[in-house]
Amino acid sequence: MVDDPLDPPPEPQPQTPPAVAAASPSPSPPPLLLRPRREAFEHGLLPIPKLIFPEGTLAHTLAQVKDKLASAADGGGRVAAAALAEALQIPHEQAALALATLAAVLPADDPALDSGGGGGADLRDVLLFLYIQSYKRLVPRAHKDSPAVTDVWPSTSAFDGYLSALSPIQLVRSNSRRFMPSQADEEIHQLSYLQKHMANILTLLADSVEGEGDDSLVLTMETFEHLGFLLKFSEGTPLSQAATFFANSDPDMPAAPVSAAQVHDWISQNISASLEFSTEKSISKEVSQQVTSDIDVTMADANASNARNSTPTGTNPAYYRNTTFVEGFSKTSVVKHASDVKGHSVKVLNCHESVIYILAPLKYATVYGCSDATVVLGAIGKVVKVEHCERVHIIAAAKRICIANCRECIFYLGVNHQPLIVGDNHKLQVAPFNTYYPQLGEHLAKVGVDPAINKWDQPFVLGVVDPHDSLSHPAGVSDVQAESAARLDPDLFTNFMIPSWFGTEVQEPTKCCPFPLPEIYCASQSKKLAALEDIRRTIRELQIDDNRKKELTNALHAQFKDWLYACQLEY
User: Fold this and answer.
1) What is the per-residue pLDDT across 195-232, written as a single tens digit (0 to 9) for each?
2) Cα–chain-centroid distance for residue 174?
3) Comparing 301 with 324, which gets the higher pLDDT?
4) Which residues have C-beta within 8 Å of that of residue 346, sequence separation ≥ 6?
5) Is 410 helix (H, G, I), strand (E, B) or coil?
6) Closest CA to 386 of 353, 414, 358, 425
7) Contact at 8 Å (CB) between 466 and 423?
8) CA distances from 371 to 20, 171, 336, 362 (A)
9) How far is CA 375 from the centre of its chain?
């Protein structure tokens, strides 16, 4: 399964007001716009210290690792978990996790590398994966009046000392969402990282041949195409077709290798053009925002302006078009069917006291900065990432899930691989998957999630410190194992009902939860059903007159309303 092609260019937008247009003329995009593959940076980084090498010795150390892996690889140049564990001196379980993570973020499925990290990965993919472990995430922009914000909203988060700056409740209170990096900012940061390190990356991938200087290192077209792990064109054009030195190569005759220096020049030129265009767009956007809006808007205005329920349709085709956003909702319900989703990924960002239904087959899903909400993710074929959430119920059917820096959340999971838990978590609970909708079975089959396998209660726990995030975990903080998740008490387990009007007609609808329920939870459900039946029978057998029946009915309705209101407060 290859990354989905990009959607057609968005419809033309209404003309910019004259004052804004004068302040920020839109730059013309280059013919081809090179982008980083966000999946590799968003879902492919692991907080395992031995995978991360100091920048000063990164190229040299990875060259030595390459020699070790090449000598241990099979005849096809593939690296197994045992060889990776030996080369990096890490436990076999961590090596298997690294290969499984690599499998989840490759641009195309690798038949020889299963999603659990078994089999073997292509050596070139492994080297690229190890290289980007040195990447540092972009930190938020400084608030223009940080001391004032701190004074008005004192920190009371349980994350104090590590994560107070990223606590979702504090994000809402201080209205600091605008100072978090935008999607465009992050892509510029990723492109800049690749620009800085591309010479070393190409040297790592290149083959040595006879010659002097730059001519002694060459890349074949096959090796060049592996750079698609890190880079892609916004129009969906394959790298080898866009590169003049490999374009229109005869498929029956292998193209001649090209010098690494020539490849580096071509990539550098394309990255520079993309960075120039993206930076101009970013500056233009900031100027437009300053002209058209008051910086110190009220919280109500901020919430209203931030609410988005679909992919943004800005004029920059380089961003977003493979991602659907559900952002900034409060005290409401949002439903997304397959027909509503653009691209192969969804991001649920900064939603509070809401219920979000994503009833679609997708590759990737991110839930970030949400609180007091319920998020239903129907079928995710690669990775779900839940980060910086508080008191959120996540109901997810997926190949795998990563949980980072969350507190007091409950995860109702149907996952084929162990849930990965990293960062500073508090009071997490896990439970079996507990819902269904008519198309769920079809969606699971489409993305390759097997409902017969559910490892919801087998978390894989790594450390608290994330070396990729200098803001959340400052340098010098010693690492400890992250807090794991407890099993939800079976007596507190309930099924989550998705309203039937959210569904559409299907030939073979799913009529029950496709993931088998563990025996202890089945017993608890049976106990509750038996108690309910006893209550019903008792009410039916009551020998009372009509007036008393009416009083009983009113009392039951009142109790039900109180219960429903209490549930709303809980969420």
Assistant:
1) 999 999 999 999 988 776 667 899 999 999 999 999 99
2) 25
3) 324
4) 323, 324, 325, 326, 336, 358, 360, 362, 364, 365, 366, 377
5) strand
6) 425
7) yes
8) 35, 11, 19, 23
9) 14
- Give 493-544 pLDDT, tens digit per residue: 999 999 876 556 677 888 899 999 999 999 988 888 877 777 777 777 777 7
Residue 370 has pLDDT above 90, yes or no: yes
Instruction: Report residue 310: phi and psi, to 5°.
Output: -155, 175
- Decide: residue 516, CB within 10 A, 0-12 exposed, 13-18 middle, 19+ buried: middle
**pLDDT at residue 488, as a whole number:** 96
Both structure tokens of 561: 């309303």
Query: Under 8 Å CB-to-CB from 331, ≥6 apart: which residues?
Result: 352, 353, 354
Q: Is 545 helix (H, G, I), strand (E, B) or coil?
A: coil
Q: Does domain 323-502 have CATH number 3.10.310.10?
A: no
Cβ 363 vs Cβ 447: under 8 Å: yes
Q: What letter would DSSP give residue 559?
A: H
Q: Are 348 and 366 in contact (CB under 8 A)?
A: yes
How many whole angstroms separate alpha carbon 132 and alpha carbon 139? 17
Specify the pLDDT at position 376. 98
**Beta pairing partners, 481:** 463
What are the structural domain ranges in the chain? 46-134, 323-502, 519-570
Helix or strand holding residue 485 (H, E): strand 485-487
- Maximal CA-CA distance, the chain: 103
Q: Which two tokens stand for residue 554?
A: 């009113």
- For the four alpha carbons of 167, 173, 177 and 178, in that order, the dihedral sign comes to negative
Global pTM reads: 0.81
Residue pair 378/361 in contact by the 8 Å Cβ criterion = yes
Determine the Cα angle at 422 with ends 418 and 427, to 5°: 90
